[in-house]
Amino acid sequence: MKKLVIFDLDGTLLDSVNDLAASVNHALGTFGYPARTVAEVKSFIGNGVTKLIERALPENHKTGEDISKTKKEFISYYNIHGADMTTPFEGIPELLENLQDKGIKLAVASNKYNEGAVNLVKHYFPDIRFGAVLGQNETRPVKPDPAIIFEICSKCGVSVGESIYVGDSYVDMETARNAGIECIGVTWGCQTAEVLSRYSPLCVTGKACDIFEIACGQPCPGTL
Which of 14, 120, 186, 224 has the CA that lies 20 to 30 A from 109? Predict the structure, then answer.
């Protein structure tokens, strides 16, 4: 049984793409830039808010100033509207509760800006006692740099070898590889099973129950 399960946030715990797209388009529209489709925004997610905004901006408006002002507007809007349409993926609340009941520590490692990550986790999972919820800040490099995994393990007092990481994107798979941590790829987020399988995770799955069984070494409970 693992002692710690670390989850990515967007695309893994939360289906947040519609709120992200609405916030991106609000920020773009504020400065007269053309809107992006939800599918486009989904393809831009994974490397943090700065990259998200840079990718969303028109090709001739990707200067540092353009990115900075649009990012600021995005964050201001998202802090208010980030939970308008977002929902946990099917089975995730039950998965977290069951893992917690087994005494397994839980954490979140996200490339979302730190305030946004912390606020959403508190909003959607108020009864889960996360050992750490870390997002992007000015001093912490974004995934796939493994620093966030090492920091979480240190905060939780658990070694990398006693932990497992769960994510939905190639960025998550690369993060796990860089950290030397076992990982599970989930197919309900950004990437297909084919893409995730290229990184040789322990498992690629579309069922929350499989995460429980791998982390606990036990059959999935009837409540999941």
Answer: 224
How many residues are present in the chain?
A: 224
Instruction: Sketch the domain layout of the chain as residue ranges.
Output: 4-15+86-216, 17-81
Residues 142, 168: contact at Cβ < 8 Å? no
User: pLDDT tens-digit profile of 21-44?
Assistant: 999 999 999 999 999 999 999 999
Residue 169 in contact with residue 152, Cβ under 8 Å? Answer: no
Q: Where are the alpha helices (DSSP H) in the chain?
A: 17-30, 38-44, 49-56, 64-81, 92-101, 114-124, 147-156, 170-179, 193-197, 208-216
d(CA 195, CA 190): 10
Contacts of 167 (CB under 8 A, 6+ apart): 7, 8, 11, 12, 173, 175, 176, 183, 184, 185, 186, 189
CATH topology match: 4-15+86-216 vs 17-81 = no
Give CATH for domain 17-81: 1.10.150.240
The set of residues, in sequence order, having a beta carbon less than 8 Å from that of 222 and lying 6+ positions away, is none
Distance between CA atoms of 195 and 157, rounded to whole angstroms? Answer: 32
Cα end-to-end span (Å), the chain: 18
Strand order in the sheet with 182-186: 132-136, 105-113, 4-7, 163-167, 182-186, 203-205
CATH of the domain spanning 4-15+86-216: 3.40.50.1000
Task: Yes or no: say if 52 and 45 are a contact pair by the CB < 8 Å rule.
Answer: yes
Indicate which residues carry an active-site annotation: 8
